[in-house]
Amino acid sequence: MADQKESFRALVQAAIEQFKAEKSIEGDLDASSLVRVENPPKPEMGDLGVPLFPFAKAFRMAPPAIAAEVAKIVNAGSGVKELGTVAAVGPYVNIKLNKENAAGGILQKILKEGDEYGSFAEDGKKPFEGRRVMVEYSSPNTNKPLHLGHMRNDALGESVSRILKKAGAQVYRVNIINNRGVHICKSMIAYKLFHEAKGDTPESLGIKGDHFVGQCYVEFDKYSKEHPEALQQAEDMLIKWENGDKEVRDLWQKMNGWTLSGVQQTYDRTGVGFEKLYFESDTYLKGKEEIRRGLEKGIFFKADDGSVRVDVTNVTGKGKDGEDHSKVLLRKDGTSVYITQDIGTAISRHNDWDFNQMVYVVASEQIYHFKILFHILKQLGYDWASNLYHLSYGLVNLPSGRMKSREGTVVDADDLIDSLHADALKAIQDKGRDEEVGDADDVAEKVALAALHYYLLQVSPVKDMLFNPEESLSFNGNTGPYLQYMGARIASILRKAQEQGLSCDENPQALALLSHESEWALVKSLGRFPQVVEKAATDLDPSQMASYLYEVCKSFSAFYRDCPILSIAQENKDLASARLTLASCTLTVLRNAMNLVLVPFLEKM
User: Fold this and answer.
1) HSE (side-chain half, CA atoms, 13 Å) at 209
2) Which of 80, 161, 204, 555 is the 20 to 30 Å CA partner of 24?
3) What is the DSSP string of 195-249?
4) What does the pLDDT look like over 340-389, one tens digit per residue?
5) Which residues contact 171 (CB under 8 A, 6 or more apart)?
């Protein structure tokens, strides 16, 4: 639809320029920047529309009156009849495109671009070409496995990265591993108390390394409730770690290795990856030099208690007592705090990879933290700090309530996927489709991942949500498995057509036969994909892509209900071939879009 859209824009722009001349309006009026083509809310209004609100002041007329005059000029000109029928609809100039011409243009573009379809804007360029975006996500702790909260973080980070890349950006995915601190020492204390003497290892116990270390963390919490001195033991161990104690460091490296090995298995399983891992143990001291530099320049100040602070009143506002707010950057003993580490890490990252945008995928609980972080980096004189963005997301819980890892009530990511996998496999077996789908276990795994990822991504990131495993696995409605079912259904149609000797027809004359309302609705939906990619990339919002996928599936379902393909091949082969082309293009769009929201495609289901 891109060519038709641009043609319509040009006609309306020319008509506005003509109307401006007829009314003898003086002054600058850049119609090219003000003419914006939109999709009308209802199909009966038209396929494309241009709002005339931006011209009301210059023309000193109500937008509906301007629309009526502009529509009249467009219809009196040449070239419009081939494009479609133009009419004023309130304050809009709308057009109903000639389906015969528009459908062929859209489908031929999809056929030509294939896997690349969705990447190119109306001008033929990738909208994010030249943009270098670093995306940070996941940020696991090495004292426990990934849990459901991490799954939302991972899904958002990976999906945003794929969408940005689809829009033409260079994307560099990074992960900060939180591998130091008292919480890490708690797991280490529990290991020494309950496992070291027995020589327990993840291998000897037959469990993943991250699960074993997480078990130690839970054991410490239970132990510390009866032995309060255990908390001091963990603090003392952290001091030994910071002083480089060999025994402590050796145990720390061993347990970190167990956790990271297990976490990597989960990443591999869910399709999540990174270009570089950063470790808190390497970065936590790097910000101290910057803080001292800022103190010397008067950007920061030393408080009465000896700590180094920064005034953040411009970020937070004054307190109820009218006092300014400050943030500690170095404790009075000179040790760093969490934000000190983030300052050093941000600077190191920009030195490592010269990004022009950095996206932090972190829960909304940290909104205040990132506002201050960005403010401090700007105060330090880093211009690129203006391009830092916190993609905050809401909490995700189960219907049973909020998760607490130290109490052992957290839902481990692996356990959740295993449960979804088992339920999907049972559904396949209950329907007797084991042999038909091929590798039933592999299909069940992909259904489980589709259920999980799509359910997490279909909700706007800023919203809190409940993850309902049963709902996520439904093969009906707005779910990942439903998308997979529709993709597999189209793939089956294409296979059967091939068996019957029916092939797609890319000839414009054949595609001009696609004039049914359900065909046209599907074609228009497919034509919107590049716009959805650009908008989702701009807004860093995968839920827009999820909504679009569901729309395409519903449109295809209506098309297939109203417009049979294989059953009419004998009586009208040309129309059947054209409809088969439409089905094939739908499959291309589904494949491309499903990949962006981490939903595996299935040929059979």
Assistant:
1) 15
2) 80
3) TTTTT--HHHHTS-HHHHHHHHHHHHHHHHHH-THHHHHHHHHHHHHHTT-HHHH
4) 999 999 999 999 999 999 999 999 999 999 999 999 999 999 999 999 99
5) 133, 134, 135, 161, 164, 165
